[in-house]
Amino acid sequence: MPFTTMPGWKYAFSLSSESVKAATPPGTVRLIEQAQTTLHHGRYVEKVVRFPVPTSDPADPLNWAPWRKISCLLTVSLYSFACNFSSASLSPALPIWNLWFPENARPFKDLMKFVAVNVLCIGMGNILWVPLANVFGRRPVLILSSMILFLATLLAGFTADFQLVLVCRVFQGLGSSVSETIAPAIVGDMFFIHERAGWMALFTACLASGSVIGGISGGYIAVHLGWFYIFHIGAALTGTAFLCTVFFAPETLFERESPCLPAPRVPRNVRYWTHQHSRRIPARPPCLSLGTLPSMHMTLPSRFLGSMVAAPGPVVDPGRDLFLTWYETSSSEGDLSTVSTPPRLSKQHPPPPPIHDNTNNQATTTNFSLPVGYRPAGAAGGSNGNENRHGILRSSRRMSTITSSHPLPLQLQPPQPPPAELSYLSSLKIGMYRGSFLYQFAKPWMTLRLPTTWIVMLQYGGLVGSVAVISTVGPQILSAPPYQWGANAGLLYIGALTGIVLGCLYSSVLADWRLKRGAKRQDHGFAEPESRIPIMLPSLAIATSGLLVFGFCAEYGALAERKALKDGTAEGMKIHLWVGLEVGYGMITFALTQVPSIWFSYLIDSYAQLASDCFVMTCILRGIIPFAWTFFVDQWIQKDGYLIPFGGFTVIMGVFSLLIVPLIWFGKRMRIATARYVVGNQYQKL
């Protein structure tokens, strides 16, 4: 594919605002299409366009029946819940170790390794899992990782050896890794762009609630049933998730022939034809390849080349460029006047009338991707032996490019029949090999050139690190005097659970609504992935403040209650500080539900197949930050108290949160600047 004409950072940030608005980098899709109707007093009704465009293959996840999509979604959600439940349920039970195994007593800093190594392996395991999934498919990797998680949890429930339990926690982390990489990618594979964020919010709510419910129940299980039952119950949960992945999680990794962009309507009298067995039959229109976005280079699959003929009809006005591009071939980085704005869609200017299909004598309105360019005979640039009499460039390559400035009048295709239903037995098949093993291992590290990857890494890692610190320190605070909650220390997670529920509702209601609203407000009906990002601003501000609230309550709680005991007002003060800890924790988890949901949707929308590679880097830092924070936070608190460490975490999280502001203002320019890399690495192999 020709990438030499693609713009870079200098070009992207030199564009005018109107040029940026007219650009269609990867991630910008047409979401709103107006259709003629009189249902609303003669006004045109705005119709949501389904994107990505589904194929006719029944194995395409976009074509699955709703029950299959929902069952697969619930399966990966259950698996993600079980992963975090198994990871977090041990934190409030750590003080129970020395009571159950006095002959193998350990200081608390050693017991903290059960949490730290598990969190680290959850993040680092994706270095292995995601490349394997890109080569062999997501289904076998999901089944294998869930089996490892189940076996490690089962084994840990039958040993009291510290080192062996530590090894089991390592394998628990490795088996849980794909819950935050492959699992969200599966959700993104099954749903269209306008419904993706709502389902992603449900998934992330299950992901986050696993930690909370595990934290609430872990202490009760250890005190009333015993240490081993933490792993027994976890084994039952992870075993159920393993069976569900075997029977209800089909393969969702589906390679589409060419990443297509939505485009304006094809003009009238345009039809597509191809030849098969010496017969001329209607054909699918070719799509505009993402690899050719910034220039006038059109890309066609090989089956169209040399087999398309021009149907009789008027030639479209050559003075009007039909291509939706960033700039024409002849333009340079300094010449920005050639950027064309997509056709205006408004209620005052209705869309063209329906196009009549002569094959069935029915009037139908058909939306297409951009038609292929056409170079008429005698046009500038001349002709060569590779062009036929219609100006179409012949080539034996799988994907070939055609440079032109005039559209080719072709005929419309008839409506495609609905795809066949995928059988249940076919959905259980395991077998895929895409090759390029070493390249798949290198791809995640190359996504560090995308600024969004860094922003997601830091924000998500900071939130998970904050939750890990509180889930470790919080039960200690409530178990010690003057609270002395004992087994009830896990009730601290009630505030976290409340924040997760509120965050899920907030995200599921607003995320997709903002995407559709942004597309409706645009003249051309395009949706930008950045339209969802502003709803995270209040969430990140609340989470940053929550760290400070928790730190103040933890620092001054014990001192204030000792003073209240002398004054006779201890009961009221105790309740107040208890609520402060709960509220601070809930403020953080309120954002923890939204940030991965919206960011995961953004990465999938903007980078398509590269999203899972971005998830790898996100989860690596998501493992490193909690590991580092929980590893030294106990010593830091013993030295300086609670306020200074949590004040430091607040400053760090505040800096991470502010990184969202440049993306709100310049996110589309960044996508324009990085389009060469994004397009070139979708399907390219070394």
TrEMBL record:
Give the membrane topology, semicolon-separated if more than one. Multi-pass membrane protein
Q: Which GO terms describe its molecular function?
A: transmembrane transporter activity
> Region Disordered: which residues?
333-364
- Indicate, by first and last residue, each region the UniProt record lists as having compositional bias (Polar residues): 333-343
Instruction: Tell where it localizes.
Output: Membrane
Q: Which UniProt keywords are present, listed alphabetically?
A: Membrane, Transmembrane, Transmembrane helix
- What are the transmembrane regions? 70-91, 111-129, 141-158, 164-187, 199-221, 227-249, 454-478, 490-513, 533-557, 577-602, 614-632, 644-666
Taxonomically, the superkingdom here is Eukaryota
* A Gene Ontology cellular-component term: plasma membrane
Q: Which residue range or ranges hold the Major facilitator superfamily (MFS) profile domain?
A: 72-686
Q: Which PROSITE patterns does the record match to this protein? A: MFS (PS50850)
Report the PANTHER family cross-referenced here.
MAJOR FACILITATOR SUPERFAMILY, MAJOR FACILITATOR SUPERFAMILY (MFS) PROFILE DOMAIN-CONTAINING PROTEIN
- Name assigned to this protein: Major facilitator superfamily domain-containing protein
